[in-house]
Amino acid sequence: xxxxxxxxxxxxxxxxxxxxKGNVKSVTHCATRLRFQLNDRDKADKAKVESTKGVIxxxxxxxxxxxxxxxxxxxxxESIVSNEGVSGEGGGSSGGIVARLIDLVTxxxxxxxxxxxxxxxxxxxLATAVWAxxxxxxxSTYAIWYAAGDAAFQFLPFFIAVTAAKKFKANQxxxxxxAGALVYSxxxxxxxxxxxxxxxxxxxxxxGGALNFFGIPLPxxxxxxxxIPMIFAIYAQAKLEQxxxxxxxxxxxxxxxxxxxxxxxxxxxxLVIGPLSNWLGDGLSxxxxxxxxxxxxxxxxxxxxxxxxxxxxxxxxxxxPVMIQDLTTQGYSLLTGPLFAAxxxxxxxxxxxxxxxxxxxxxxxxxxxxxxxxxxGITEPAIYGVTxxxxxxxxxxxxxxxxxxxxxxxxxxxxxxxxxxxxxTLTSTLNIGNFALQLxxxxxxxxxxxxxxxxxxxxxxxxxxxTTGEVVDAGDVEVGSPVAGTxxxxxxxxxxxxxxxxxxxGVGVLPTSGTVVAPVDGEVVSVMPHAYGLRxxxxxxxxxxxxxxxxxxxxRHFSPKVAQGARVARGDTLAQVDFDAVKADGYDTTTLxxxxxxxxxxxVTMSTDADVDGAADLITVVR
Length: 623
Description:
Residues 103-472 form the PTS EIIC type-1 domain. By secondary structure, the protein is of the alpha+beta class.
């Protein structure tokens, strides 16, 4: 039997740390992240996940528990699905409209993202070849390679049919047939013109021919590379299939259902869904161009400054449909021009950290992360492992991205294909706008980020402060009470996960006031309305969990007063809570203080079993 690979080890450790496969509703992945939908967030140990070898960090956004892996995410995902018995089916987001939109976009586009990126890179290399050797563009060799690079984008409806059908739980083969009908209308000659020459439906309509379906005039927009029409068409397919499954006899369902779906959805798409989607897509594309025409410099600065911030929160996926729609309608997207400056600026800041830091471990992370970010455009290892972790270098990268993005946008620069912005795909902007300004903008962004990081510096991480999940100081620690109230032993808490000590040693308090305070001095490493993670300067990790199962309240009755990354002193207010309202909604208000990373040699004891005031000594940790 083969030994487990490093991906298997990472997968196994992650599943264990998030509460086992039984706590996973579903898992998908994007370019660098595993995106979990969990049944019970409280069972997941964020600190333990982040300390797992192969994991960069954890981000909680849009109702998802996102584990940032980096370039190896697909390998870890494959191991999770094949070896850990976890479903790879995408579940719906439980968040608001933005979270649901992001979940929809990632579910549909993630499976073929790297195909689009790879073919976009091939087209960028071909553009470079033609720039260096103009006559090459007229050869059949170029034509064959161009077909290889362009086909995936032209026949994008087939890709979307598969992934959208999976997302909406529709029949994938019927979805492919629907996509085929849309593409067929633009690729296969089926109708004669006045001269008797066969034409495609699209060309016939474009030449002024009158198309109709049972007398209803039929518009015929282009469906090659179509994105929005396919998504809506497959959604309609899924709803119709669900209706048919309720009434169609099982003896004929397997062949009658596809017939009915195709007979209904294809004409409805041609008559209604396609034209409306085309109008919506054109509106999005025209809106971007309108804004860019008002001030390309401001637009470029905003995209250059904001892109990496969007990446942190996963919001960058919201731009993907707009970019692809632009590529469909005009062959390029102005939104992509400033992104090269944004991405490479973070890479340059990471290079500066690599050269400047005295911390060997940080240097070991920064080197590979800089290479990945600059060459391939994959910046999440650089952001989470280096620049955002140190804060200042991330800000310097944002400043560089803003300036460089403004310069690139001023020249009307944009990528011709769907590419991941990086040094090796920079030539995808050769033919759109002013390539010289794109090079200048990208170079300026990198110089600004690198220089600011080198000159203004950052607070370096001392070797002994590296957080590996183990406690590094040897002094005793007094942990205060986060609320005033009555102390109860952990074993008496009405929750098996907490009372068993599975999450660590600790104490419960029945609160008598609504002010929740920090029980220790340290950094706020995680913030949820009902739970707060803190890390002391010596590495002790303390969880303050307000109430039992209160995650289900979705933040109602909780008013956080701190943000992730803030420094707090013992007694500082973390949150205000309306405990009466929490009780009225049927939830236990017991507030827990848990030491989540105590080692086997540590001794954790209750300091008192009496009533306590907020910030009174509650737990003693003997190191």
